Amino acid sequence: MPDASHHLPDDSATADGRSGGKGRRRKPRTTRRKPRSTRRKALVITAWTAAGVVVLGGAGLGYLWFKFNGNLHGVDINAALGTDRPDDVDNGSMDILVLGSDSRAGDNAKYGGGDGASARSDTAMILHVYEGRKKASIVSIPRDTLVTRPACTTNAGGTDPGGERRMFNESYSVGGPACAVKTVESMSGIRMDHYVEVDFSGFKKLINTLGGVDITTTKAISDPDSHLNLPAGEHTLNGEQALGLVRTRHAVGDGGDLGRIQLQQAFMKALIDQIKDVGVFSSPKKLYDLADTATKSTTVDSDLDSVNRLIGFANGLKSIDSQDMHMVTLPVEYDQLDPNRVVPLQQESQLVWDALKADKAIPAAATKDSAGDKGDAGSYVNGN
Q1: At the topology level of CATH, where does 44-210+282-366 sit?
Q2: In this predicted model, what pLDDT tens digit does every residue of 237-277 receive, in sequence order?
Q3: What's the CA gap between 377 and 142, in Å, rounded?
């Protein structure tokens, strides 16, 4: 990967389309600034798809903005968390927490028992966009990571005290998006500028609306639990198959979540490359369907919950290709007390957080001893 610490000049465009420079940005906040008072697998590309197709829709279907605005669902993270957050450092970078929610409500019910209250964030990624908006790093957080969870307001309006050795993905089920953001900020010391969430059915619909995803499997992948059976070879995956691929854990690697994350990252790169070639302008109906599906499929923070704001956000991401992204898993090791869980490698994890805070490339030393970046699960899938 090119050196992600390389920056463009100070007058490069910011994510909201205005020129750079410190201390002059207004809401919606798409770059970092001074502090102020204030379900199962989906991928970070879903967020980019949601934003990107709105950019296209805004160009050709401006009269439908009101409809798309009505589709969007926003959550006010700033109001929920108040001032008890890391400093909002003004260095031109942007950090986004992207969650895949496994809510079992509505269209997601067939993926498991229970109701929406049992939802967890089974995919979590921190997307760090470097100053200049030309490169990005993605840090995947394994759902089974044991963390010290801060006290959170619960979904029922009470207070959960948190504590040590709590599974990361329980933060969302305890206190929704605000608790998930608070937990990530507590772990990393980095303030999240934005929040994007997609659930099972939303991910499927986006893939189907795009017309499927072309991949090549280098090995057969068969997992009845995720309804997936792919022989080795070329495939065009529909939404159901794509969801099965990014959910599977038993069919790749050691059968755990770390191998699944590698598979997700490989699929993400294939999808990003394919989206660049989608001929949406040749089909007004497809353009409309993409914008409608994307805006219905995502939950975002209140700084992105309008089409105009989402356009500014997307303008800051549209030039980033798969080769411009450095993807890693949070440095972890298997827990000595419970081999089904992982715990962060403290020194190595701090190298990751320090690099992102400074808007620098994540050093190789951070991941060389991590269980998260070992194994060959990522080699099972290539883009066509």
Answers
A1: Aminopeptidase (3.40.630)
A2: 999 999 999 888 877 776 778 988 988 888 888 888 777 66
A3: 15
Helix (H) or strand (E) run with residue 182 in it:
helix 170-188
Quote the CA–CA distance of 197 and 178 in Å, as a whole number: 12
The Cα–Cα gap between 65 and 29 comes to: 21
How many angstroms separate the CA atoms of 237 and 123, rounded?
Answer: 20
Q: Is 150 helix (H, G, I), strand (E, B) or coil?
A: coil
User: What is the pTM (predicted TM-score) of this model?
Assistant: 0.79
Instruction: Kindly write down the DSSP assignment for every residue of 215-234, as one continuous string.
Output: EEESS-EEEGGGTEEE-SEE
Confidence at residue 196, expressed as pLDDT on a 0 to 100 scale: 92
End-to-end Cα distance, the chain: 21
Q: What is the C-alpha separation between 245 and 140, in angstroms, rounded? A: 17
Nearest to 296 by CA among 237, 209, 212: 209
Taking residues 181-204, what's their average pLDDT?
93
Handedness of CA 127, 131, 136, 142 (dihedral sign): negative
What's the CA gap between 300 and 73, in Å, rounded? 6
DSSP at 263: H
- Strand 213-217 relative to strand 194-199: parallel, antiparallel, unpaired? unpaired
Distant-in-sequence, close-in-space partners of 226: CB < 8 Å, separation ≥ 6: 243, 244, 245, 247, 248, 249, 251
Instruction: Please report how the helices 239-247 and 257-275 are oriented relative to each other, as an axis angle in degrees rounded to 10.
Output: 140
Give the 3-state secondary structure of residue 373: helix
Pairing of strands 94-101, 146-149: unpaired
Q: Which amino acid is at 185?
A: E
In the numeric block, which tokens belong to residue 83? 């001032």
